[in-house]
What does this fold into?
Amino acid sequence: MSPKSLRYLDRISAALLLLWAGAALGFGVFSAPVFFQELPSRDVAGRIAGLIIGRLDWAAWTAFGLAGLSWGARWMAELQEEAIGPIRLWSAGWLVAMLMCLASTFVVTPKVRDIRARIAAPVETLAPDHADRVAYNKAHGVSRNLFFLRIALALGLAATVGMLPRKNQAPEA
It folds into this structure.
């Protein structure tokens, strides 16, 4: 792949990551607090926020997945080197982000939905030490942490994708 093509892929990757991070930050910092403050019930606000988080999870798959195109063509060239280089470090960050998408989409979010479906009333009406409320709060905390860590990873990956090498740096045989 030519350096010009790689530069183009880098720009697309950075744009997708920044677009997702902006949408996620916009929701997490601006919209979600307003939902919980202005809607008549925290339960309704939580259900709306959960739907948006589900969509943001799938958007994260798209953003991080397509950003992976930036390093795919470069990975093989660095495999021949001895030291840990920028591609391997960037790939590690990308892999962590993808694993967080996997955990959020297929483990944590279904767990939150199962707990909410099992509870017939709003979560806040349960006693603070009720098993379902404790489980919900724990799952919600994990979900929130994964969400904000993915935002940090998206910003970091977007900021560094342009620093990946654009030529085959492996020594010629």
In short: The mean pLDDT is 87.
